[in-house]
Amino acid sequence: MLQTDFQRDAELPDLKIVPLANLVLHEQVDPERIKGLVQRLEKDGLLKNPPIVAPIPGSATYVVLDGANRTSALAAIGCRDAAVQIVDYNDPDLELAVWNHLVVAPTPDDVIETLRRINGLRMRRVTLAMARALLANRGVLAYVEPIEGPVLVLEGGLTLEGEAELLNQIVNSYHGRLRYFRVKSDELKGLLPYYDGVAVLVAFPVFQPEDITHLASNGAKLPAGITRHVIPQRALRVNVPLHILQQDRPVDEKNRWLHEKIKQHLLNREIRFYQEATVLFDE
Asked: Is residue 276 one of the residues assigned to a domain?
């Protein structure tokens, strides 16, 4: 589905309504977050912020880059379709980055000893500089930097799917058992003043778009909360009524409705463009 001339001329995000069946996820979902999203969607009666998707070459499907839980929540409340923002995965302004995890625990061993029990996962001691270099070159799955003690690199997996499975087991070893924070930085000492009770930093690799597309196309998923997509011109507060997404009407008809909705927003000068980065303190 191509962006309309109208949207291109107006420099608007490429918004479409597509079948949920055409969306594939690249990361795991969080059932608790889905439950909360279902309640919010049903209360509002609107999909406010569309998931971000990219076309998978050679197919009619899209990989969900951001919004896996929203996509799953829409399916849970009986939507046939989803309103999405379509982006070009090769856009130089689109950044695929990483979230690292700061894990809260009484001691580093509360995290590390659980990791040692993962079948097929190897661990060895290295310097922090070497761990960072290996991770940057995708020579290891991840590394663990404790607040005290040696840095450990985590290795294993013969294929991309095998690596994804081990990464899931790594995150599952503390997810639901210990509290953790997603952070952009890998500078543990600089982060500690802002987070209480941290025992270790788990640093993950930066994947490539072709890795994400490959995993999604083959039904494999990364853990939730390690990929971070920075999207140019992200569309917010589009406010698509859920009954539109639930109706058994042709998708083309729904997209004509969406086109008219966007057109009216534009004519009424209700669309705002923000070029500068913003920081919200009440989310």
From this structure: no
pLDDT in tens, 99-119: 999 999 999 999 999 999 999
Domain that holds residue 169: 100-203
Q: Which CATH number belongs to the domain containing residue 46 in this structure?
A: 3.90.1530.10
- In our burial notation (b when 16+ CB lie closer than 10 A, e otherwise), range 135-159 reads beeeebbbbbbbeeeebbbbbbbee
Q: What is the pTM of this model?
A: 0.90
How many Cβ atoms sit within 10 Å of the Cβ of residue 4? Answer: 16
Q: What are phi and psi of 127, to 5 degrees?
A: -75, 160
Number of domains in the chain: 2
Decide if 217 is inside a domain: no
**The pLDDT of residue 2:** 46
pLDDT(240) > 60: yes
DSSP lists the bridge partners of residue 123 as: 154
